[in-house]
Amino acid sequence: MLRIRYEAQETVKLVGAKIMASRQFQEADLQTHHHVTTVARHSFRVACVCFCICHFLYVVFKIRTNWQLLIVCALLHDLGIIGRHYKYASKSECYTKHPVDSVDIADSLLGGLDDTARDIIGNHMWPVTPTRPRTIEGFIITVADKYSAMTDFIPMNHRQMLVEAAIL
User: Are the C-beta atoms of 159 and 151 separated by less than 8 Å?
Assistant: First the structure.
């Protein structure tokens, strides 16, 4: 369990180095998200969870996924939230519009996105938004995002206790 967690973190750092060094991602580390973390930390955690899910799907079911693209998209999926307090009139507007803004930011940061990347980032808020993902990677980020959002609210010392309990 700890090995895959370490492997996930190191892989995300390697695959996402360019994104994490960008001005937009640095700004994401300055904005609070889910009251207890930052947009950047949450996105990093989502990318790690995505990697773990992809690893599980391959090891157990031999299902291949584009885990590299998924890591990139996970790091970018919430960048549209930056400045939400002045960009969006309400929480519901933020829920529906930040994925669209995140796609635009990702598009400019990467110099273009393919349809799979647009699906992953643009539909990550499903089922809160009506459009569901069309790819397995889109579903994976949706699950990873919801899981990470829930664990964002668990204090760090309790989160560590949950990890240790799962290992024992």
Answer: yes
Cα–Cα nearest to 66, from 145, 137, 143: 137
In this prediction, residue 136 carries a pLDDT of 97
Residue 146, both tokens? 């919801």
What is residue 63's three-state secondary structure? coil
Hey, what are 13's tokens?
């750092």
Whether 134 has a pLDDT exceeding 50, the answer reads yes
Q: Give per-residue burial for 53-73: e unless 16+ CB within 10 Å, then b.
A: bbbebeeeeeeebbbebbbbb
Which residues have a Cβ under 8 Å from the Cβ of 128 and sit 6 or more positions away?
Answer: 95, 96
- % residues pLDDT > 90 (the chain): 71
